[in-house]
């Protein structure tokens, strides 16, 4: 897909106030946003423009969100986030089964939606989305300068060794993605790394002690038992 300077996001919902709020938040994050209030309009926009991601309500006039998703999936694998007032597990499973990449139940946090949009775009268009110079999390509680390799916790510099920084960078540039120890070793140190993958646990422990308010109850780097680790980007921001 041809990419412009901005990612173009289509937001589809029959409630004007939701469209207005979501559009405002996404535009603040430098996305180009187009809105539609029914399924027919959404499909017309999809067919006429280069859309990079769709935020799609399920209960739409004219053509339902489920049908819109099915038709889009016939020709495109672009990321789709579904919005619904239905909280039942079966409804969520149905949404995923017809092609949604993510799912939010109304009422939802717009900040959380923005984080999920960024995470999906990063995974789908990795080659087109370079890491920003400075990433800020949780209203400045944690700040990471990728070029200068500087990490700050509550505005104070945190001393991470090189290997710790490499692991942290892998995790925070792939938010919500679970990495096994083996995959973290491969991505951070390369396939020829001769250390043990269990050393990752030590690095994670050290990172947590430096960036978490309580390393025993981490908010940023969490353990997914039996699978590995992932980074939770609370109130994610990008600084130019």
Automatic annotation (TrEMBL):
Task: Tell me what organism the protein belongs to.
Answer: Clostridium saccharobutylicum DSM 13864
Signal sequence region: none
Annotated ranges, domain OmpR/PhoB-type: 132-233
User: Which residues are annotated with the PTM 4-aspartylphosphate?
Assistant: 57
Q: What is this protein called?
A: Stage 0 sporulation protein A homolog
* UniProt keyword terms in alphabetical order: DNA-binding, Phosphoprotein, Transcription, Transcription regulation, Two-component regulatory system
* Chain's gene name: regX2
Q: What CDD domains has UniProt attached to this entry?
A: trans_reg_C
Please name the GO terms of the biological process aspect recorded for this protein, alphabetically.
regulation of DNA-templated transcription
Q: Which SUPFAM superfamilies match?
A: C-terminal effector domain of the bipartite response regulators, CheY-like
Asked if the Swiss-Prot or TrEMBL record annotates the protein with the keyword Isomerase, the reply is no
Source organism, top-level taxon:
Bacteria
């Amino acid at each position: 897909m041809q990419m412009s300077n901005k990612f173009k996001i289509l937001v589809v919902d029959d409630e004007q106030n939701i469209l207005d709020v979501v559009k405002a938040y996404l535009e603040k994050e430098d996305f180009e946003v187009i809105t539609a209030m029914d399924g027919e309009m959404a499909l017309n926009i999809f067919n006429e423009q280069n859309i990079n991601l769709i935020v799609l309500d399920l209960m739409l006039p004219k053509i339902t969100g489920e049908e819109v998703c099915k038709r889009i999936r016939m020709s495109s694998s672009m990321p789709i986030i579904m919005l619904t007032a239905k909280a039942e597990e079966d409804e969520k499973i149905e949404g995923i089964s017809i092609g949604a990449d993510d799912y939010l139940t109304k009422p939802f946090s717009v900040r959380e939606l923005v984080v999920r949009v960024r995470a999906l775009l990063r995974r789908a268009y990795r080659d087109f989305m370079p890491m920003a110079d400075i990433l800020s999390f949780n209203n400045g509680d944690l700040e990471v300068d990728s070029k200068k390799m500087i990490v700050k916790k509550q505005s104070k510099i945190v001393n991470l060794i090189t290997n710790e920084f490499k692991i942290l960078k892998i995790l925070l540039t792939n938010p919500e993605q679970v990495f096994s120890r083996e995959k973290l070793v491969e991505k951070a140190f390369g396939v020829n790394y001769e250390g043990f993958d269990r050393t990752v646990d030590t690095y994670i422990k050290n990172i947590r002690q430096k960036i978490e308010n309580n390393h025993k109850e981490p908010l940023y780097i969490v353990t997914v038992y039996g699978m590995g680790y992932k980074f939770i980007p609370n109130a994610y921001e990008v600084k130019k």
